[in-house]
Amino acid sequence: MPLYSLFCDECETGSEHFMGMDDNSLLVKCPSCAAPLTRALNRNYAAEKIMIKGDTCSGSCDFSNYFDDGLDTYITSRSHRKRVMQERGLTEYEPTSEGKAARAESSYIRSHAPLGDTDALHAARQQSRDMDGKRKKRLITEKLEKAQKLIRTTGD
Questions:
Q1: pTM (2 d.p.)
Q2: Which of 26, 37, 42, 102 is the most exposed place for a label (fewest CB within 10 A)?
Q3: How far apart are CA 52 and CA 58, in angstroms?
Q4: Domain ranges in the chain?
Q5: pLDDT per residue as tens digits for the range 25-43
Q6: Burial environment of residue 39 by CB neighbours within 10 A (0 to 12, 13 to 18, 19 or more)
Q7: Which residues pair with 43 in a beta bridge?
């Protein structure tokens, strides 16, 4: 069951309640003043609304003006992020076909496992860990080979 933050309009205090996704009209009482709260009327979101301006996203999403920790800069749009990444010689992560196949297999195991079958979930998790380990090992090997090649070319 999701946890919802409801804010009372009377005393302006917030409280968290576990409610089902279909419990829009479920009436709960404010813990401070006992005023009636419903998710439909008193729900506020903790995160700001996301809006993409300029680079297309249907609906209301704002992808502009956020700080990207990985790039260590403010990003104003998708095209701006793409341009910054190109300038720094970076590319978006794209899983290999082997990685996509492993992810699909893990999803299949999770979606077709009987409810409460922990062995199947453990198998899916282990399969994901194994694939991630192979990916990390391959990246380390590639970086090591690049470094060795650079040492050989600068040493000659």
A1: 0.37
A2: 26
A3: 8
A4: 3-42, 48-92, 97-155
A5: 677 888 888 888 776 665 5
A6: buried
A7: 6
